[in-house]
Amino acid sequence: MSRTRTTWRTSRTAGLAALAATTALVLAGCSSGDANDKASTADSGTDRGPITFAVGKDTSGALQKQVDAWNTAHPSEKVTLDELPASADAQLQQLQQNAQVKSTAFSVLGLDVTWTSEFAANRWIDAMPASTSTSGLLPAAVDSATYRGTLYSVPWQTNGGLLFYRSDLLTAAGVKTPPTTWQEMQADCAKVKALPQAKGASCYAGQFDKYEGLVVNFSEAVQSSGGHVFDTDGNPTVNTPQAKTALAWLAGAFKDGTIPQEELTYQEENGRKAFQSGKAIFMRNWPYVWDLANKTDGSSKVAGKFDVAPLPGLDSTGSSTLGGYNLAVSSFTRHKTTARDFITYLTSDSSERANLLAASTAPTRAALYEDRALQKKFPYLADLKQSLDAAVARPKAVRYGDVSAAVQDAIYPVLSGQAGPDTALASLQTKLTQITSQP
Amino acid sequence: MTTTAPAVALPPTKPAPKSSTRRADHGEGRLAAVLLSPTFLVLALVIGYPLVSALRESLYRRGEGLDANGFVVSGEHFVGLRNYTDAFTGAGGSRFWNAFGNTTFFTVTSVVLEAAVGLAMALVMHHALRGRALLRAGILVPWAVPTAVSGLLWRWIFDANGIANKLLGQQILWAADGWPAKWAVVIADTWKTAPFIGLLTLAGLQLIPAELHEAARVDGANAWVQFRKITLPLVKPALLVAVLFRLLDVLRMFDLPYLLVGNQKHSVQTLSVLAFNEANNLHYGPAAAYATLLFLYVVIVAYAFVKILGTDLIAEARAKTPARRRRSATRSLAGRGTPA
């Protein structure tokens, strides 16, 4: 017993020593924090050597093949593929953490279109040299890669929303062309639902869970009724008649069952599964669904029975929100010239074509959409191009995470019938102004 | 309130007289300090430093505001306690109190449910004669499943078209923002961690001498009275330790709400989720403030729990360990002899 007592007493002294050590460490930590603010942008032009490429999971394996091809051609400037998690949140977190500690681990960064502003404003990525050519790239995608008039990244993959519809049911109901407005869509729905083979099907599936997808779907509704979530100067404009019309339509669609209540929990995959099992007549989703819903291995009940069209709008065809990835050079990496060359290689015509063929990722090069051979293989390309031409990038907010959360907080209660559109949008306007204005 | 179990506890040992052995202890103590110092250094590095660093971070803010060219103004500035006052009152006040309420709700409901279910599991495991080993292994499975995986499993179960709604014959939107989401988290957490309480309680149950129950039976006590007067008081120390562990764990709950329901949904936002969201949006100061407040909350709850219910759990456990070991050793030896 006495032994335990004394150990306890001495351990207290040791604890004091440990505390002192900790304090010393903390002090050291404090002083190192402010020291390296001189992140140099020095660039010699002959800055070549091995680099890394940090990007979300390469699910198709196509990217690794392209990297291998580059490595064979450039033995002294080898690229290592650094695969980040599949979820966008986890990717952003890793990229942020690496940037925070000014790590040299990542050279070329694959940035979601919504992150470019944050990375540029924090000086985590280098501006692209003025000589970088953007000709042939989709204008909306280039816009998403630009921050305050300067190009900070190169658009690599893009994405636009499409309206998937059951062509078989529409034809059976005597509807010849897909709807271009919301009203037409609801009218078509009523006709299709009268058919015995459409029993139990719901009208429209989108992404209305409380996550980034809700921001996308809400922005599309606002744009499709002629409004904007943010104007061209980056000021929020959600307290407008157009935005109110859009939100009122969405809330009304939830109320009258056009959009079933359970879609308050729907993300992309839930919608795809509902559509594939024949439970939805119309669906807003990304092009990746095309391949999966056309699978004839029994996973899809609608293979060959659907088609795509641009999103519907209030008075005419609607407007999509732009998705996709841009490539940027980390400010903290070595061998920046190699990094830029590698970006040029990945965003070239041939690389993007290979990516489209292998992983059906939408290219950022306009010419590929006109390619006959590709159009034959991917019949939705023409519709996607039309959607992308009308697409609007998401707001270029430095604090995009805050913007996204504010939109979700305001819109979700309206859809679930707990708040009215007018008051929700008025308070959202105040909140967004607060977030985007400079303190 | 006393927790010393009459049958198990040893008579309190008197502390040995200090003065006689002081000199010898001094040398020994010095050696012990030297031998332990690497451990303390490591502890200071991995526990002390992050803690102090987070405290310091919570008094600063950075990355606010843009300069004329649209760049984030670099460097951090001291804001005193503003991160804390904002958490309680300002624009973020309602978010904090909501998260605080959720954290408390989850803690109270899941720990109560888990203790009840865990105790029941322990009793079943204790009394089952046939297939006892299989039963124990089976009950342990949920505890062995990683929380992230169980979060995804329950996400499927609670899907709008999932098995939970099929069984209930209802169309409940478990994953939407609202009360069903809270219950989804409580159910998933109880499923996962009741076995933990069950197992620790089982260890306590096995320490209760069979003679006590025999004697009670002879005296004519029925099962309920035996449970109330013998089993429960004697198993209480073990149960309390298990509950304390769970309390500390649930207060920090993060993965289940995050994976099962979603981190933006206010109905399941816990303090951990709130701190995570803030850090993700690069608001490290407020995030550190939330984390520190959570830390304080955990400390207060743990302290109160130990003070009110456990008197001195740690010292009691320390005093009992040798006796317990001997007993459980003989128990398990004896147990081997009985047909299982």
TrEMBL record, chain A:
Record GO biological process: maltodextrin transmembrane transport; maltose transport
Keyword field: Signal, Transport
CDD domains registered for this protein in UniProt: PBP2_TMBP
Matches recorded under SUPFAM superfamilies: Periplasmic binding protein-like II
One GO molecular-function entry: maltose binding
GO cellular component entries: ATP-binding cassette (ABC) transporter complex, substrate-binding subunit-containing
Family matches, as Gene3D superfamilies: Periplasmic binding protein-like II
Keyword Transport (UniProt): yes
Signal peptide residues on this chain, from the entry's feature table: 1-28
Pfam families on file: SBP_bac_1
Similarity-based family: Belongs to the bacterial solute-binding protein 1 family.
Protein name listed in UniProt: ABC transporter substrate-binding protein
Source organism per UniProt: Streptomyces shenzhenensis
TrEMBL record, chain B:
Domain ABC transmembrane type-1: 100-305
KW Transcription (keyword) present: no
Superkingdom of source: Bacteria
Record's subcellular location: Cell membrane; Membrane
GO biological process, one term: transmembrane transport
Pfam family, any one: BPD_transp_1
Keywords: Membrane, Transmembrane, Transmembrane helix, Transport
Main location: membrane
Record-linked PROSITE patterns: ABC_TM1
Chain intervals with Low complexity compositional bias: 1-11
Membrane-crossing residue ranges in chain numbering: 31-52, 105-125, 137-157, 287-306
GO CC terms in record: plasma membrane
Entry membrane topology: Multi-pass membrane protein
Region (Disordered): 1-24
Family: Belongs to the binding-protein-dependent transport system permease family.
Name of the protein in question: Sugar ABC transporter permease
